[in-house]
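Same chain as my last thread, 45 residues:
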Amino acid sequence: MPAQALPAEFVYLLTNRVGIDESVVAAMTRDEAVARLNRYWIEGS
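reply #2:
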């Protein structure tokens, strides 16, 4: 498993709640994923 692999829950939230394509999520770093989820929870988008 790569050191920067995203937790499955992050992938699920980003693809199913936020609506980001799985290929885009796969290219994200953990920090990018956290920042994107935070933006979704704070701004709703």
